[in-house]
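hiii, so i know i said id send this last week but things got crazy w the move. better late than never?? heres the sequnce for the chain we talked about at the cafe, plus the structure i predicted for it. fair warning i was half asleep when i ran it
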Amino acid sequence: MDIKWLQTFIKAAELENFRMASEELYVTQPAVTKHIQRLEDYLNIQLFERIGKSIKLTPAGHKFLPLAKEITASFERNMNAFDLWKQGYNKKLNIACAPQIASSFLPDLLSQFISTYPHIEVDIDILKSYEIAEKVSTGAVDLGLARMPSVHTNVMCSTIHEESVVLAGPITDTAEESSLLTKYRVFTNNHPGYWKALLKELKGSNPYIKTMAVSQIEVTKRFIETGLGISYLPESMVKEEIAAKKLKIYPSSIAASLRSVTYLIEKIETEETMLFKEFVMVYKKRS
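okay and structure toks below
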């Protein structure tokens, strides 16, 4: 029995259409038909009823579908493990990470971790902070690094990093914070941890303030560079632009009360997650 027959069967059962299955699998429709026929010949039973151009699982097809999924999942899991062995890995760690974290302290942390534990393969999945806890909760990833705490009761959440927030604006201006808030648009929603409360505070004291929601910090920085507006951003995220004199930090009583927090979210502590968590704690003390 060929694993491709099973993969084709599963996709055809899901879509109930051979043509759509062929498009999803990037093979020809005759190839899909051939895979199904060979699988049915091998099992000596009909898996689909053909009704014109439509198909429907037979009782045997319904019975075999969960078995086919189990066989293909086991095949893929074992082939992945074998591939890891070929690459010199004997452990794997899947981490979901928010974009802001991935582009700030994570590269240096990850470089040191991989150097210390070269036998652990690390996969990084970049997601929005509110999506990360869900991935950890369902077991899709081993750990999460997010800018907001989890609301899921089956995961553990701990603070691993805090940093200051600064008011960043165009390099050419010299105005004070109150004037900047009147003169420029304020780019919001680029950090999930503090913007909701901050926006309420800003609009409470400046009811006519002009805002623009920009979900990515990298885009926010480019907009500020061109003089389009200002924003309250984590200090580490503007460090390079400040050094290159592309952005400027302005004194801010509002920013002084803000903190950008990184949360580590975990569900089950494995050897790999324990090592990474311990490494993060050491890294945190050094930085």
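btw The two ends are 55 Å apart (CA to CA). thought thatd interest u
miss u guys!!
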